[in-house]
Fold:
Amino acid sequence: MAKFSANKNTREAAKNQAKNILKQISEKHVGTDRNNFDSLVKLAEYANIHLNCSLREVTQEQALLYLLDRSVDHSQSSLDKDTLAFQRMFQRAEVSDPLYKNERLPKIQSEIEQSNTSRCYTQRQIEIIYQHQTDKFALSTQIAASAGLRAHELLTLQRIDERSPSTRNKHLDAKKLKFKGIDGKKYTVQGKGGLIREVVIPNHLADKLEQHRLELSQRQIDREVNYDTKYDIPGGQRWSNSFTKAAERSLGWTNGAHGLRHTYAQERMNELQKTEKYETALAIVSQELGHFRPDITLVYLR
Structure:
C-alpha cells in the first residue's frame, strides 16, 4: 500500500488520482464530470492523509464513513453529489472494493438540515429513556451517553489492551488533558474513517459490559457495514431505533440517539472550561468525540 503524508504535494497527488478514476467513469458531460472530479479529489485527499491509501484503494465502508463525517456540516445536495460520484467510481472504475452495476450506496442524511437547534438531553431525560428500555438496550444507552459514542461504535468496543488507538497529529495540550476528570476504564472504538480512538467508560458500566463479553467475536451487519463485535449488547440502527421509540414513549418527543453525543459535548465543554481555555477545551472534546476537525464539534455546542 502506498504511503502518504500531508504536505504541499497532497492536493496535486489527489487530483492525479481523481483524473485517473474520472477517465474510467466519464459521463462525457462537462458539468457532470466536473462535479465528479471535485468529489473524487476531496475523497482522495482524505484517503491520502487519514487512511494512508490511494483513491482506488478506498473501500465502500470508508467512503460511507467519510460521508457521515461530512453530514455534520454539509448540505444534503452536497452529500448526494458526492455519493453519486463515489457510486460511479465503485461501479465502473478499477478499484479494490467494486460495486455491482445494479447496487447503490446508501443515502446519507445531512444533519444540518435535520435540525438547526440543540439536540441535547438532560441527564434526567436520559435516565427516563433508558428506564423504558430492556436491560441490554438500557446498558447500551448508558454507555453511549457516558462515553459520547456513535450508534455503530457500540458494536466496535474493545478493551484497550486488545487494540491500540490510531496515531494522528493532535493538539498537545488536549492530548495530555484528554478525559480529565473522568474516572473509568479505557476501551477503544472504531469511528469514522476507520479511526480507532480511546474512550472511557465509568467503572460500574464497564463491569456490566464485561458481563456481556462473548467468548468468540460475532459478525453483525449494520447499515450494510460488517462489524466483529466482542460484546453481546445492541448497537447501530437496532439500538438507535430502540432509543427513539423509548424516548417517544417516555418523553413524547425525541432528538434521536445522536443527541447523546451533543449532550456529552456540551457537558464536557462546561466542565473543562472551569480550568482550561476555550480553544483547549474544544480540542479535548473534539478528540474525545473522534472528530477530525474541532470546528465540527461546534455543531454539537449549539
About this structure: Confidence is low (pLDDT under 50) at residues 1-6. Residues 103 and 111 are 25 Å apart (CA to CA). The chain is about 50% helix and 10% strand.
